[in-house]
Amino acid sequence: MPLTGRWTLTRYLIEQRRRYPGASGELNALLLDVSLACKALARIVSRGALGSALGNALPAGGSINVQGEVQKPLDVLSNEIFVRMNEWSGHLGGMASEEMETPSQIPATYPRGKYLLVFDPLDGSSNIDVNVAVGSIFSILRAPADVLESGRDVVEADFLQPGAAQVAAGYAIYGPAAQFVLTVGDGVAVFTLDPDLGEFVLTQSNVQIPADTQEFAINSSNARFWEPPIKRYVDECLAGKPGPRGKDFNMRWIASMVAEAHRILMRGGVFLYPRDSKDPSRPGRLRLLYEANPVGFLMEQAGGRASTGRQPMLGVQPHELHQRIGLVFGSRNEVERIERYHREPVASETPAPLFAPRSLFRD
Ligand code: F6P
Ligand code: MN
After folding, report:
1. Which of 82, 102, 265, 279 is the most buried (most CB within 10 A)?
2. Are the C-beta atoms of 118 and 159 separated by less than 8 Å?
């Protein structure tokens, strides 16, 4: 289809805003700045080993970030791009990121605005050296009123808002094509980067996740650390057609949550990085504010569901900026099933496989 028949991201945002006559256009401008950061990263990532930003193209080293993870040169660069592309506009009161221990302040030379931007600038970055899809995830919150009124510095507590308070959220995926996936609370829209024009062009709107699925994603090397409801769920999937689910399942694990979230938005499925006992200091692997909440908002807006297993993700009250949490998201009926398994008593509900309902040994 020629471009004349399509909507750019700019047009989509303006058409959306027309439906809210009171809207000032600041959110739109902010989202366009975020999308520009994503375009810059799409370009860097697409240059691959020919560019200068990949870990293996630079001298060995790299630091450890606030999460205790190795920070690759591209993690640092992508964080810098997000901060620099967004700090000048006057739309933000402050920013927080996976790569920064404390919130980033808007420099005194620029006005401070009414939104907060929270992001994971390069999700799945362990995949960058092997040319597998990575992405950027973002969440937009309102800044407390006094940030705008007094121009004070932001503090960690300003960001500790439940996912239900998000104004907008999305991600960019840097895969075979770069795409920008967005919700402003009115469904989910997908934009594909036209590399010639440098524009994100609307290619799918009102994305709907099928309620049922036969595909799940989990890092099963952690199986011995899982809690019983998760073991039960995965065992039942693995039991396939003769098992209690009565159907065969397929499994995928990319180790890039953005890519898993995208697959699930496009064709359904369920993703689990549940709370486990691997490291008692961390109740889960993924981060609430800039991974679980934005993906949770997108899932719910696409008719799917996101949960800790015990409660809806978007209802969780955060208590720290880099808080980790167990995360399950995707096709609604599967996520609800996993939540039910968390509520049901364990022993009576998980018969040993040999005595499962369809087993030969059951009387
Ligand atoms: O940001 C965390 C992350 O890279 C996610 O993108 C991904 O789902 C997960 O970690 C992979 O974890 P693991 O290395 O345990 O498979
Ligand atoms: Mn991440």
Report:
1. 82
2. yes
